[in-house]
Amino acid sequence: MLLVATPPLVDPNFDRTVVYMLEHTDTGAVGVVLNRPREEEPPDQLHAWTSHLVPPACLFQGGPVELDALIALARLDRPIDGAWSQVVGGLGSIDLTLDPSEVAAGVLALRVFRGYSGWGPSQLDEELAVGAWMVFDALPDDVFTADPDGLWRRVVARQGGRVAWLANAPDDLSTN
């Protein structure tokens, strides 16, 4: 599922973001922001993986929590048991300390996030109740979009009806 920030979400960490949810339980929720590429080269420890990054081939800001943590989501060709954790379908998280050949026969797509988005128990539910987020189904290409800057508008527009109108909302609603 995707969490899509409603305009304008007051928290600058999440204004106009699209968050891919990895987990949402009674103990909290975790996801990664899909539309915040960082102008930062991947660290040397990712050297073996950089050729597998899909465009734009950079790190993404996954969220404001644990900025030293790297989370990698990938589509793999014949993944090796124990070397990845399936999220849904052919999408999973991988251990970046391994060599790509130890994870799968091939890496079809890879995106690496610095940090993540996290919520404590019932925190996300409260934000949903006050309308801070819209919840939509994720499409397979959302995680690996080549145009992360346009993702928020595309996701909102594809919902159709009145929700799609929000795709053209200005950043400053008072200018509408």
Written description of the protein model:
With 176 residues, the protein is mostly beta strands. It has a single domain (2-175), classed as VC0467-like (3-Layer(aba) Sandwich). It contains three helices and nine strands, in the order ββββββββαβαα.
Main attributes of the structure:
mainly beta, single chain, 36% strand, nine-stranded mixed beta sheet, 11% helix, VC0467-like, 176 residues
Brief digest:
By secondary structure, the protein is mainly beta. Helices cover 11% and strands 36% of the residues.
Describe the biggest sheet? 9 strands, mixed
Q: In the CATH hierarchy, what is the superfamily?
A: VC0467-like
**In CATH terms, what is the architecture?**
3-Layer(aba) Sandwich
Helix content: 10-25%
Query: Which descriptor suits the 3D outline?
Result: globular
CA-based gyration radius: 17 Å
Q: What is the highest CATH level, the class?
A: Alpha Beta
